[in-house]
Amino acid sequence: MCSACKNQVITPAIVPPVEIKAPQISSTSHSLGIIGAVEPVYVLPMKAPLAGRIDTGAETSSIDASDVKTFERDGEKWVSFTVTNRETGEKHHFEKELARQTTITRINQHEKRLVVILDIKLGNEIISAEFSLADRSKFEYQALIGRNVLTGRAIVDTALENTLH
Description:
Distance between the termini: 74 Å
Strand content: over 45%
Strand order of the largest sheet: 2-3-10-4-9-8
Largest sheet: 6 strands, mixed, barrel
Radius of gyration: 25 Å
Helix content: under 10%
Shape: elongated
């Protein structure tokens, strides 16, 4: 070190604090506003809602379906299935054109699922979206609402439930 540097006092530069602002999110830009972790989902034309788990980690929504059978109509692949509301016993039989097939991976298990487009009512909004047909009998919630329904429509606050009536 040079002799001139030994006597030099170094003062640290004072950097003004940086204000970090949270992004401005307006519930008016999202048609459903702020929703909770569990919301009522009406699978149209059913009269009573299913309890739906809101899952931002799921890409595609899923519905509890039974008696799932594929068939051909006018050269196209179709699916027939039944949705039964566990709370009310209301049943509805659906016949929908097959949108696609997907593979769900869970803890080293792969499950092939059929995907159809369903009309649902969430809050005051009617939404047509892809739903994979699954046996959700071992799950608490009969519907799982994923990002394909949520993106651009809702902000999720997991501390809330049943904000949509």
